[in-house]
Amino acid sequence: MTSIGIVGAGVSGLHLGLLLRQHDVPVTIYTDKTGDELAAGRLLNSVAHHHPTLERERQLGVHHWDAAEYGYVCHHHYIGGPMPLVFRGDFASPSSGIDYRLYLPRLMGDFEDRGGRLAVQAVQTDDLDRLAAQHDLLVVASGRGTHGALFGRRAEKSPYDKPQRRLSVALWHGIVPSEPKGVTLNISPGHGEVVEMPFYSFDGHVTALLFENIPGGDLEMLADLRYDEDPQAFEQTVLAKLKEHYPGTYERVDPSTFAVTRPQDILQGALTPHLRADYTQLSDGKYALAVGDAHSVVDPLVGQGANSASYSAWTLGEAILEDLGFDELFCQRVARRRAEVVEGISDWTNFMLAPPPPHFVALLISMAQHQPICDEFTRNFGHGDRQWAMLATPDRTRTYLARNGVDMDALLASLPGAT
Amino acid sequence: MTSIGIVGAGVSGLHLGLLLRQHDVPVTIYTDKTGDELAAGRLLNSVAHHHPTLERERQLGVHHWDAAEYGYVCHHHYIGGPMPLVFRGDFASPSSGIDYRLYLPRLMGDFEDRGGRLAVQAVQTDDLDRLAAQHDLLVVASGRGTHGALFGRRAEKSPYDKPQRRLSVALWHGIVPSEPKGVTLNISPGHGEVVEMPFYSFDGHVTALLFENIPGGDLEMLADLRYDEDPQAFEQTVLAKLKEHYPGTYERVDPSTFAVTRPQDILQGALTPHLRADYTQLSDGKYALAVGDAHSVVDPLVGQGANSASYSAWTLGEAILEDLGFDELFCQRVARRRAEVVEGISDWTNFMLAPPPPHFVALLISMAQHQPICDEFTRNFGHGDRQWAMLATPDRTRTYLARNGVDMDALLASLPGAT
Q: Are residues A393 and B339, on separate chains, in Cβ contact within 8 Å?
């Protein structure tokens, strides 16, 4: 009987483990923390689950927070500058933001209830050969520590050698939800973005504010501000920066109740996005396959990490269920099948971190003027490959806009400052 | 409006052109022969269309020869040697063999009736840049002449540097069809194979005999035998060789009526299988994409060429219909999407040309003893990727057989001569 070992109990490890358990495949997930430890810990992220990911949850029977109640239905956009652009894109089906300190422990429980083995132990990279000997296939689903480095960095798909944003995310009381309930994507040109997101956490329905601060900009200091040193100063500074840079969210803040939900509901840091090789051969000749953060690390700016990880895990799971061996042919198949989506998400996210080229400016203006274009951009948050197909080159955006009745070159020529 | 140019009016060029015409995409197919010239010419091949290819024909509305009437439903196997193996595998849905001198002209007519432009002109490789300038994408669907050489040979997927069989195929009267109506796959170890195939041609229902002769074997001379020099000697020699090497077919020959249908219904030659790069950049920066023989040339032994070509064309057509540009990103997507099937077919066919390794011997013996195994092998003629997944390594075949209740190692150990 096939036995699969998975290192890492994040969304990719759990979705994979649960899919395999639906088909009675023996699975062990190795993780360094219990669910209780995760639940008691610091905020892990503020990630969105978009419709395709929620559909996978439904197929796994782990969609415990009904998106109709806990989710949100649109993206509000507020693009600052001399002529602010304000517009809304609607999803076809809701997305959702659930605190992973609720989500992951619950799915760990589901996994164990369904016969999965959860081994709580620290796994060092040196241990992987030993673990591999106990399984037919070892899946590395954690980028933690040095595991990721097992899989070579793909330089041609990893354009950055340092973080493009310095991050500060916290959960907040005191922000009136947008109407309709949605994520608000605020851009402060040259300084960064704030993603304001309806979020379900220990305090119930709260708001996540993910500050994506451009190094050297006016907001970078938010990544260094220490809540523990002076909670009030932290909150007042955030409020002042919101007012100055992100009026689209600031206008819904109630200053009298605006406060971080709990001291541990803050996460600050930075990451260098990269794509790694899909698989590697271990010393006993077996292969280890990377999913999730071990394979693709994306900046959280457009909320794609969990969706990439879940898709990748699902694709791998289907291949495990149908194939006859876990050799290099198998690894190549998995790599090919997931590449369009995983690489599309990575390429698109990296594109969004760079200063916007003219064809993206044209798309943003077109979104403000044409609802179908804005809705499609919004829905493509569930289909990063399609988003990238639309943005990868100026020619592609030109063709896309032309099919939607917009003459990109005429639009760009009409802008102030165009020559 | 997108315009697609296709060089070559074989099955890949026509299936692609017809799919695009179903969606009103302007298409020009360049071909060096009219349908009438093809119809009047020499036998082109004796290729089978398996169920997935017939399904594509149905979707295109060009399934003119109903497989229920013109097709066949099984493979009879006759493996010679000291202990001949005789067994039958059944398709789930019929396959079909139609003379391409009927098939291609009919589809060329369909293509023109549906607004496709058929440009009958010799196209030299030097002309491709000029043609590309008239279209948004140029598809090279003909391996004829030097077109294929535009696309680099992929050495790691092209194990042979010379033909592995010398071929002689002709259409015959005087063979009573097998019961149920099927292809008979005869193997004469060390000498080659004959594929006996129900075939529909100008003389109605006839039989194609495709001799796949191993160089240096007793049957190689069949590839050199000239019908025109002495028709009777040709026919008598074929009959004698059938009797000696392929009793599974010989027993259904009526010597009094056994005869080549028409002098032009004979084709002799040899080919070196190879896989080429998926695409190349032309001098104006546009890309040309290879399909069919320009991309993958397979030996006809297991009747896969048309199926690979049709699948490849269909995958390309779907990508053309959904994508926004014909740049390298597009070419990479097409390459990835078709790789599993096209490479699987190529790898499997190349495997079948080599002396059978023990795990394939074990599979053949298991087919003779277990109907589900034999049926699955037979049905996988429509899914070369699945066949290859089963045969690519001894471990894979071992796992497959174990899942079907066969202990491969015990079986091999039980064979005479096993140590």
A: no
